[in-house]
Amino acid sequence: MPAAPAAFDPHDPLGLDELLGPEELAVRDTVRQWAADRVLPHVADWYERGELPVVRELARELGSIGALGMQLTGYGCAGASAVQYGLACLELEAADSGIRSLVSVQGSLAMYAIHRYGSEEQKQQWLPAMAAGEVIGCFGLTEPDHGSDPAAMRTRAKRDGSDWVLDGRKMWITNGSVAGVAVVWARTDEGVRGFLVPAGTPGFSAPEIRHKWSLRASVTSELVLDGVRLPADAVLPEVTGLRGPLSCLNHARYGIVWGAVGAARASFEAALDYARSREQFGRPIGGFQLTQAKLADMALELHKGILLAHHLGRRMDAGRLRPEQVSFGKLNNVREAIEICRTARTVLGANGISLEYPVMRHATNLESVLTYEGTVEMHQLVLGKALTGIDAFRG
């Protein structure tokens, strides 16, 4: 006879942990414990102050647990599966979106670009130190006037003898002012090319962006390139055109599919715990029908989102994940995560706006996650084109 089903677990109502193998559980538990020890006790203070003062220390610690560039192979990288990487993103964003962004930009954008499109010399120079967290990287694609339309970028690189000279601006760059190397995409006479710009190069600066109301526990910068002269071997040799940066973005968007439900899980669990203990009218508010309806709806969308992330992760590991499917996951999971946070806030009432609870912090962070690496509208149009066969991006 089949074994009796396990007891219902409010934190895993669908039994999704049964989908994970021992190595996947080990990765999840390692990252969860690190976040509990090193981020959760401090993140509300960092958020309130609008800074991440220990970013370099955290990067080294993340390197020590194999979380930086973890899907890449060789050069000190962990060679983890897509599902293992996704689980790490979920646990990091359950602590704070800014911490997951630090890891995503380091591994899925900067390191991924070098690993996939760099020369062997570039890989040897940068990747081991980046995997260890000794060098932080950033990824310069978005510009002040060109976010969703990178083909219209104004940053240019021109040849001057055997050198390249770069001029332009990049905006909203995570890790920018603490990065030891920037992967900068620029227009050339040959098409869009990627360049490795070491910190301290004359003409290159990365002033930090202040006065943010979202991703406050994260380093965000502008990149300024005024006559930045680079040697010929600074260019990524293995790609020309927008497929280079767009492939990197697709890799990072996959991590967001998992990360967003981490923020949603933290908010749901805060609301669930609160509903069990907060009393009004002589009983816990979790005993009222309207509160139970909210909790049921939040649990439904949260675990559907986790199941979707699992499915996309298995497809990526099998080499069958398409960019349109990543758009499907990013669009759904971020949108639903924001709604879960907003509903959780209502369960907590006035306490929902306090940094003593994580809900409002996650909600405001997700407003950035909603629009970076592809706005809602861009992912809707990606799916619309895939469904109809008609390109509406410029229609």
UniProtKB/TrEMBL annotation:
Cofactor(s) for this UniProt protein: FAD
InterPro entries per the UniProt record, alphabetical: Acyl-CoA_Oxase/DH_mid-dom (IPR006091), Acyl-CoA_Oxase/DH_mid-dom_sf (IPR046373), AcylCo_DH-like_C (IPR036250), AcylCo_DH/oxidase_C (IPR009075), AcylCoA_DH/ox_N (IPR013786), AcylCoA_DH/ox_N_sf (IPR037069), AcylCoA_DH/oxidase_NM_dom_sf (IPR009100), Glutaryl-CoA_DH_mitochondrial (IPR052033)
Acyl-CoA dehydrogenase/oxidase N-terminal domain: residues covered: 22-134
A single GO molecular function term of this UniProt record: flavin adenine dinucleotide binding
Gene Ontology terms describing biological process: fatty acid beta-oxidation using acyl-CoA dehydrogenase; fatty-acyl-CoA biosynthetic process
Domain Acyl-CoA oxidase/dehydrogenase middle: from-to ranges: 138-228
UniProt keyword terms in alphabetical order: FAD, Flavoprotein, Oxidoreductase, Transit peptide
Ranges for domain Acyl-CoA dehydrogenase/oxidase C-terminal: 241-387
Family statement: Belongs to the acyl-CoA dehydrogenase family.
Protein name: Glutaryl-CoA dehydrogenase
